[in-house]
Amino acid sequence: MKAVVYHGANDLRLEVLPVPKISISEVLVKVAVCGVCPTDIKKIHYGTLPGPRVFGHETAGTIVKVGSAVKGWRPGDRVGLHHHVPCLHCHACQHHAFAQCPQYKRTGITAGFEPSGGGYAEYVRVLHFCLPGMVRIPNNCTFEQGALLEPVNTVLKGMKKLGLLPGDKVLVIGQGPIGLMFTRLLYIHGMQVAASDLLESRLQRAKEWGATCVVQAGKEESAGKLEKWAGKEKLDAVVLAVPSDAALKEAMAQLRGGGKVLLFAHTRRGNQTEIDLSNICVDEIDLLGSYSSDFLLQKEVAKLVFTRKIDTEVIVTHRFALEETASAISLAANPMESALKILVRVEKEA
Ligand SMILES: [Zn+2]
Ligand SMILES: [Zn+2]
User: Is residue 151 reached through a cis peptide bond, with omega within 30 degrees of 0 on the bond before it?
Assistant: First the structure.
């Protein structure tokens, strides 16, 4: 089978690998679509992991083989995959911190080599502990929707951490695919949303997805516009969907006492910043982080995506063939203005 193998920083090669063999407790999936996700881009760009391995973790496809000990699945079932699944028993899981669970940290889907997602290949093997993460794609829905369950899940998880009430005013900074998903989910859940970004086209999309106030980041008049929109009560929450420290400081100043900041894009180790700690102690502002998905939200996410309450297809702007994966990744790493969500279509007719 064809696979795009990572050998080190920015070194991706199209190679021929054997179709993975499965054990009696595993499933083989023929990949249809795999999303390009910033976490993979960073690993590829900075070469943070040793090669060889096959990345790609926002995967959807068709089951082609089912191990004899696996119940509930058949060849022909169309599925969206979750490469991380928590054990639900350990200390971290008991505290609902699934992303910190040792099992969750292990990737359980592979196209060969050490499991790393494997979606940039024609077939993936789904290890037994990842089977509970498979979601059936309804007949009237696409593989692309199946592939986007995972990023939507991460956003819904982040939103829930904010503990908002309908009517609350929330600013979402950054309107790339993730920021837009925040805008949409907050709107669907009854929040009033302000959106900021450098790019006008993204602000336009944010408006279409429910933002009632849009401001261009970095423009002088933006702060005043936002202040006016927030009113005397100020903002209830700010979501940072870009890793900007300047934006974090501005955000803190716009929050009401007891407001919340969600860091969603500060994924690089070593990032430091200065904050006035009395904002946290006296003003009771909560500085929160959220990473990866929440297994228990899968049904809710599937409903949101498959009923098109969040119509993920709207934000897919580029589709590449498997052979063009390196171009897909470099476009995602250096997006042109029109680029939002980028997918690799492993199956041409997917
Ligand atoms: Zn992802
Ligand atoms: Zn656990």
Answer: no
